[in-house]
Amino acid sequence: MKKIMMFWLIVCLFSFSIETKASDIIDPSVPYFTYTMGPNNQMIATQTAYQPGGYLTLPVSLSRPEDMVLFNDQLFIIDSVEKKVFIFDNDLLFLDDFSYDGFILPKGLDVDINYIYVTDQGAETVFIFDHQGQLVREIKKPTEPIFGINNPFIPLKISVGPRGNMYVVGEGSTSGIIQLSSRGDFLGYFGTNFTGNSWLETLSDFLGVQYALNTPSSATNIKMDGEGYVYTVSPTDQKALKRFNIASVDTLTLDYVNTGLLAVTVNNLNNIVTLSNEGIITEYDSLGRLIFTFGGIDDSGNQRFGLMVDPVDIEVLEDNRLLILDQGLNQILIYVPTQFAQLIHEGLQSFNDGIYDLEIWNDVLSFNEMFSVAHQAIGQAHYRQFDYDLALYHFELANDPIGYSNAYWQIRFTFLQTYLGTIILLLLTFWVSSIIYRKINDRYQFSNVKGYVSAKIKQSKPLHDGVLLFRVLKHPLDVFYQIKHRGASSYKMATGIYGLFIITTVIATILPSYLFSVTSIQSFFLFEHVLVYSGVLTLVIFSNYLIATLNDGEGWFKNVYIGFAYSLAPYILLSIPIVISSYGFTLFESFIYQFLWFIAYAWSIILAIIMIKEIHGYGLKDLVKNILLTMITVGLLILIIFISFLLFNQVIDYVIGLVREVIIRVGF
Amino acid sequence: MLVFKRILVMLFVLSTGVSFSNVDDESILIIGNYPVSQTLLSSNAYTQPETDLRTSYNPLVSLEESVLVGENERLSLYVHPEDLSIDVYQKDTAYLWSSTINLDYAKKDENDDPLFPEQTTENDRGLNSLVWRNKIASPVWISYFGGSENNPQLREESFFESSTSRFDLEILPNSISVHLYFGISQIEFTYEVQLTAQGFEVLLHQESIQEHSNALLSNVSIYPFFGAAKKELIPGYIMVPDGVGALFRFDAYDDFTSPYQKPFYGRDFAISTFVDETSIIADDLHLTANTYGLIHGIDQQGYLNIIKDGQAYATLTVYPADVITDFFFAYTTFMYRSSYRQPLNQSQTNSVLRVQKETNPFDIHMNYQLLSNEKANYVGMAEAYQGYLVERENLSLNLNDERPIHLDILMQDNERAFIGRNTFLMTTAKDILDMIETFDDDTLYITLRGTSNHGYSGSSLDIFPISSALGSKEDWMSIFSKQNVYVYLYLEPLKLYTSESFHSELEIARGRHLLSYRFSDNYGTYDYVNPYNYQTYIQSKIEAITDFGFDGVAFENLGKTIYGSFGDHPYTRGEMLHLTEMLVSNQTVYQGYDFAFGSDALFQMPLTHSQHAKMTDTVPFITYVLTGYQHVFGSYHNYFGNTSNMLLKMIDYHVFPSFQVTQESPYRLLNSPNQTWFSTRFSIWKEEIHRQHHVIFNVLNHVQGETITHRLIPEIGISIVTYSSGNQIIINYTNEDYTFEDVTVEKMSAFFYEVTS
Q1: A521–B612 CB contact, under 8 Å
Q2: Which of A88, B101, B245, B255 could make a disulfide contact with A75, Cβ separation 3.0–4.6 Å?
Q3: What is the ipTM of this complex?
């Protein structure tokens, strides 16, 4: 016993992490790091994707530039303090500007072939001008009933579609983006943000407690691409970046998103580029996969070259250079894609054209062997070429379960096509052989393995107790009766079963196939895992016995301890076969996999309930009461332990502080 | 039991085995030509052409009422007996330097016309602030701590601020001795100014400092206004050794609201507040050398100020014009005492402000070297500083025709296993031998990381004995027998990550002497350790390493991080500086500062500066100091965003190439703590390494062993570097061809131009 405990203690001790350091690799020419998505959904450093390309100091003095639009090789900037629209050519030479008496606080801007659109937050109006700066139309709050009398119309930003339909981001417009026709008629709300209840709010609703209404936040910026998709950024924690199709459905699934997004734009590859209020620029491909994230704010006052001060908007040129409008610097920062970024853009371009260019993506991997998007693209290329084994390999490296599942389906299909007949034949042969063997043995009695085994089990208590683990599956009442009245099993056996349970939880956590894996070995903390499971078991057993003692339960602690162990039998016995079966499933069969686990868990829970009833001799009412009180007790104990831990830390902190202050004040 | 555990571990580890040959070995990197935009070439990331070539003349200074102290062939030193200002007359350029100016330069008469029209311009602010008039008039500025012990207040005092201040001036042959008594703080001390062959020196001995009240001296700046240049009047710049070197030109002074201010060699953790490094932004670079310079008139005159003593406690301040005054000026502040926060509880939410009891132990010794004519530029400054280092015996001439390349090789690392950790191989000794075979006459500087049983991410000090898994003794001896191959073991002696287990006596000893300087970076929380307590251990380790056959160690951090300690085993920053100088001798260093320039080689030297907006140019000051004397290697080529441009920079700055390599795929490191080696496989990089090496030495080969005498930027994106033989290298960063003399230098290329006598 001692040796076993010592062994597990050593196991736990060695589970502590021993990790130290590595030096940062910095591209010496830039003051920020660049990251991309690596395997296992980790952010990893990579070569600089965009280098600072200098500043474009505007030839006119801007006070508070708010928005910037590139159209037909011209740059338009709106200034809310100057109350003007400034127009520059593509060399940033000043061309023209115009103002309008009606401007109060112009914030947003868009341009199409016919008009220049300005949203004015102060005037609560959308102004439409021709390219000579003459006012064409003013659009005030829609009067259509479906707009809503109480809904505000305070336009902040605007994006105009190909037919002149306007998408307006309004301040406080929680119903969504305001969609207007080219004439200013209200067409409806578009692209509403998600809202949901927290668990507390859900519980409150269930109990009929009134909470404040949970309204969705309104978007803060908007952009439309050439294909009619509308991109919005919002100050939400979830899904801050969205891409809506014409049906107002968000079609973007992101693996990573920054918070505090200020602006969004789209380049000629349909890559999405966002800018956050921390100066972080993030580029995604058209499928929402993170390609690069970089940048930052310099709040030291030193204005380091390549860092922003107060960014407000982002645009992208045809050659994929990025322009950042910085209010703090009163300049436009340019970021130029490096050779490395150009290579990736080339690969994505080919990808969009349906060409799966292995060479380009292998070159990308030469730069960074952990580049997830490259592995994914290579995986898809191999899939197209029917190299499913290689596709499978790369999809795993890219952490793409869908691609992996598809490739695995193909491999499995080929395998079954080739070998299924043989397998069935072998199974049939085995079955027929076993029947024949049984028939012959029944007649001639040359072997009595069954009798021999039964005799051995009867003679050996450990074996007998071990067999109960199987018996409890079909005859739980019988087994629990034996435990309660016949002294079946023992503390040692029960402890061994608990140990087996923990081992199977470990196996179930780290050993399922890639598609169903919960975590990898490298992310698995054995000590914590053992601590959690053994802690929960301990709490449940003790709580149950405690409650039973207070509620006239008949069971002794030994009975409860042993009974709980045997109720875990379904989980213990089914885990390993389920884990093995995971190697045969694809995502299409994930429901089967989930269902098998459901059976294992449910069966164990049912056995536990039966055990409590039988061991303590409860009726239905007492049983339910015992279970509820046990759960509450477990919760309370966890809370007490947690609070005790916190208080203990505070006491230590207090004593140390007291001693230090005495030393300092008295001056030892 | 042990066997059982091993089997268990093996089973689980095997169950996660993945092949990591995920990149086709035949892949060839595409590293093509990729021009840099004109906008970028015009930024402070590059050196700009000299456009203001006016003859410098400073009408704000004069010798009126100054007394001659002494003179030599080049210089005359004067002192003003009333205000203690000094003037230095540079005979070869007929130029007068002064530590003060005409304070009324901007004054106007009753007709609103300037009283001194040749001294003032339309946009001048003038000196209306009494505080600044007193400051500029004073030879010395001090700060001191007043207030109560538990609530110290930092105050400034310039010498002439109080009428009760008094001084004693003694004029000696070729020097002056000045005793100052500050009237408000009642602090007194004596400083000296001595004329030398190249310039003059300023000295202040600590024992002369006396404090007669509860005011405690904090810092001292002597002649801070020496060489101040008025905007629009004097062309030139200030050079600071920020990173590789930066210029503050006198024509760039719009919109700055604060000065540039940095301590030499970075902050002292003993007194600075904690700063976490968990950030997406790279840290500012530090001042890499104990010097700075100032030029009045391009290729006309200037000075280089070398802080010979007290540099560990010195802070450099550069004021662009229009921050406070109309002047550009730079000065050094010497810190005798600082305040620091003493936390009172573990969570550090409660603390008191304390002041150092004792002053930092140092004397002030500044050496001003005046530069003339073709030496009056940053290249001349580099030459002057080089001379100082040679005299200090930090540098010795290294005239050879080596073609050095640095390979930083990862041998082993570890990752979490099911139980404990699993150490895996990335490169073996045999692999290194194969790598070496691919190089012909090149000189290889090889650094090995992760040589212990725990790998690179294991203990930072346990680098020797070498793990037997890496190779046999014969394999290592084969490496050591190679000509022109120098092998060093990577050693990080200062940082101790809190998650690092103490699994040796040394680690426990280190743990006992941890300092209270806890920081975080992207890899975890770490402490800095007291190096004195295991200095003997390090030295004995180095001895064992060299006995084995290695050439020594490659220190990380030790060459660039110095700090003091107020704890149980106190020591000063200055002491650590000298300890570092001693330890790095005959070793190699990563990112070393001037006190580490005496090592065998310097790796990972920065090729840029902190890129503040106040800086106008990047200049290769540090690398030119070391050219011909020291092997300087740049950043790893594996991670360049724009390779072709960086290769040109390396030729321009005379810096040698450096690569990270492994035999195995870096994908293998995915689950290790070290994920920044993401492109290192030698089979993929081999050809590119040779190609880049060839690109650099195709040009630099012609000038190996020479020093640099001049650098000209005739236009944006073109650099012409002249070596001591007179030969030149022309670097064209632009996207257009450039014609120089009778040759055409192609776009994005470098050309060796032999000057026939």
Answers
A1: no
A2: A88
A3: 0.86
